C-alpha cells in the first residue's frame, strides 16, 4: 500500500468521423476543463492493478503526488493483482463502500454501470483536447451515450520472441499469418526452443491468445444480436488449430497465470510467448549479463492474421471507473482528468518503457514508441483489437463470460485432449448461455 495525498497509422481526415477522431488542431482549440469545485476536505482511495514494472508504478505515484501537491486532496493508492481486482470491485459495488476509484480491466464496469459516476464530461474533454479516442476505447468506456469508465490503455499484448530461436526454426522474418505461425512453433519445438502460451486463468495472457485464435478463424461467442453462437464450425477450426499449437508448448502451461510466462522466458525456458513489454524491459534494464543477452536477442511482433483476413487481437484493456457512493465526486473527476493529461501520461509512459498502449492517438508521439524499434509494435495494438464482447454488445454478460474464463477453459480442454474440439465448443456454448440468456 502507498499512502499519498500492425498497420499504417490511422489517417485523420475522411476516416476521422467514422473513427470518432478529431484533427490534431483540435488539441489547441479544445475548451478549458470546467469541472466542479473540489469538495472541502476531499480524500479519495484508488485501487489499481498491481504493477509488473516498478518504474511504472513509481511514475504513477509521482504523478499522484503532483496532483496532491496542486490540489490538497488526500489520495491513497492500493494495488492488487488483476485476478483479485474483479471480486473486490464487485463487492464494493454491492455494499456501496470501498475504493472511490477502481483501475481494473476490460468490461468489468458494465456489470454495475448504474452504480458508477458518469464521467462523460471528463471523457469528452479529453477526447476534444487530444484528437479523439480510439473506437475500441469508446466501446469500453461508453454504455449508450454515457461514459461509465475511462480506458487507461492496454497492456499491449504482442508476441515476444528470441531472434536466434526464430532463425534456428528456419525463419528469417516473423510469419504474418496463422499457417506460418504454426510452422514456426513446430520448428521452435524441433530446435529445442519451445514456445509457451498460458492456458490457466491468466486475465491478460490466456485470454489474449485464445480470443485471438477464436476470432482469427471466424469464431465468436455471440453474434451482433448477442445470441450465443460459440458452438460453430469456425470455433471447432480454431480449437483444432490451437491443439496443434499446444503440442509445441513447454509443459505446465495449463496452470500458468499472468506472471508465469514472464518467468519462463527470462529463465530461458521458452523462446516465444504473448506478453506485454515487461519481459523486455526487465531484461534490458537488468544488471545481470544473462538477462541483458536475452534482451539483445529479443524482438516483438503483432499477432498473425488468420483465415478471416484481418487483425483479431484481444487486448487487456485497463479500464478505470469510479463509484457513485464516493463522497467526493468532483475530486474524483479532477484526479482522473489530471492523470489523463498528456504531461502526466508522457512521463508515465516513458518510465514504463511503453507498457501501456495509448487509448488516445495523440499520445502516440511520445519518443518512447520509436526510440527503440523493439517497442513500436506495442504502440499500435488498439488499432488491431476487437472487444471481448465481439460481435455483440459489451455488458454484464460479456464481462461475466470473460471473468469466468469460458473461452480459455474451452481452449484448455481441447488443447489437452480432455474433450474433442466439438465437445469443448458445445460445453462452452452452454456456459455462455447461462450469462446471456439468464
TrEMBL record:
- What UniProt keywords are attached to this protein's entry? Signal, Sugar transport, Transport
- Pfam families (alphabetical): SBP_bac_8
PROSITE patterns documented for this protein? TAT
Main subcellular location of this protein, as a coarse class: periplasm
| Domain of life, per lineage | Bacteria
Among InterPro entries, the record links this protein to: Bact_solute-bd_prot1 (IPR050490), SBP (IPR006059), TAT_signal (IPR006311)
Q: Which SUPFAM superfamilies does the protein's record reference?
A: Periplasmic binding protein-like II
What does UniProt give as the signal peptide span? 1-28
Location in the cell reads: Periplasm
Q: Which family does it belong to?
A: Belongs to the bacterial solute-binding protein 1 family.
Q: What is this protein called?
A: Multiple sugar transport system substrate-binding protein
Amino acid at each position: 500500500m502507498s499512502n499519498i495525498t500492425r498497420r499504417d497509422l490511422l489517417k485523420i481526415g475522411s476516416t476521422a468521423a467514422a473513427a470518432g477522431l478529431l484533427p490534431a488542431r483540435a488539441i489547441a482549440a479544445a475548451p478549458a476543463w470546467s469541472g466542479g469545485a473540489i469538495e472541502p476536505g476531499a480524500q479519495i482511495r484508488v485501487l489499481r492493478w498491481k504493477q509488473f514494472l516498478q518504474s511504472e508504478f513509481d511514475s504513477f505515484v509521482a504523478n499522484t503526488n503532483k496532483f496532491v501537491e496542486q490540489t490538497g486532496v488526500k489520495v491513497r493508492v492500493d494495488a492488487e493483482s488483476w485476478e483479485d481486482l474483479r471480486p473486490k470491485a464487485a463487492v464494493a459495488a454491492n455494499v456501496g463502500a470501498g475504493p472511490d476509484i477502481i483501475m481494473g480491466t476490460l468490461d468489468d464496469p458494465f456489470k454495475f454501470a448504474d452504480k458508477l459516476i458518469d464521467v462523460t464530461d471528463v471523457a469528452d474533454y479529453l477526447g476534444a483536447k487530444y484528437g479523439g479516442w480510439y473506437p475500441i476505447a469508446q466501446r469500453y468506456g461508453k454504455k449508450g451515450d454515457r461514459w461509465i469508465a475511462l480506458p487507461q490503455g492496454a497492456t499491449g499484448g504482442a508476441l515476444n520472441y528470441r531472434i536466434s530461436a526464430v532463425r534456428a526454426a528456419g525463419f528469417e522474418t516473423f510469419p504474418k499469418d496463422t499457417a506460418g505461425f504454426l510452422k514456426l512453433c513446430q520448428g521452435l519445438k524441433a530446435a529445442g526452443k519451445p514456445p509457451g502460451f498460458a492456458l490457466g486463468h491468466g486475465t491478460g495472457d490466456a485470454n489474449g491468445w485464445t480470443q485471438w485464435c477464436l476470432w482469427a478463424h471466424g469464431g465468436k461467442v455471440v453474434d451482433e444480436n448477442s445470441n450465443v453462437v460459440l458452438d460453430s464450425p469456425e470455433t471447432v477450426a480454431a480449437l483444432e488449430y490451437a491443439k496443434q499449437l499446444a503440442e509445441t508448448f513447454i509443459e505446465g502451461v495449463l496452470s500458468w497465470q499472468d506472471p508465469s510466462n514472464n518467468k519462463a522466458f527470462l529463465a530461458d525456458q521458452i523462446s516465444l510467448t504473448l506478453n506485454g513489454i515487461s519481459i523486455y524491459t526487465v531484461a534490458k534494464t537488468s544488471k545481470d549479463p544473462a538477462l541483458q543477452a536475452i534482451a539483445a536477442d529479443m524482438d516483438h511482433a503483432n499477432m498473425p492474421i488468420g483465415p478471416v483476413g484481418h487483425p483479431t487481437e484481444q487486448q487487456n484493456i485497463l479500464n478505470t471507473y469510479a463509484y457513485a457512493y464516493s463522497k467526493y465526486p468532483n475530486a474524483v473527476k479532477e484526479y482522473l482528468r489530471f492523470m489523463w493529461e498528456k504531461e502526466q501520461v508522457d512521463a508515465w509512459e516513458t518510465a514504463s518503457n511503453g507498457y501501456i498502449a495509448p487509448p488516445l492517438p495523440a499520445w502516440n508521439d511520445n519518443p518512447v514508441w520509436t526510440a527503440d524499434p523493439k517497442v513500436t509494435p506495442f504502440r499500435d495494438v488498439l488499432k488491431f483489437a476487437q472487444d471481448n464482447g465481439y460481435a455483440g454488445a459489451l455488458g454484464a454478460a460479456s464481462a461475466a463470460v470473460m471473468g469466468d474464463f469460458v473461452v480459455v477453459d474451452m481452449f484448455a480442454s481441447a488443447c489437452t485432449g480432455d474433450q474433442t474440439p466439438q465437445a469443448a465448443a458445445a460445453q462452452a456454448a452452454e456456459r455462455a448461455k447461462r450469462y446471456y440468456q439468464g
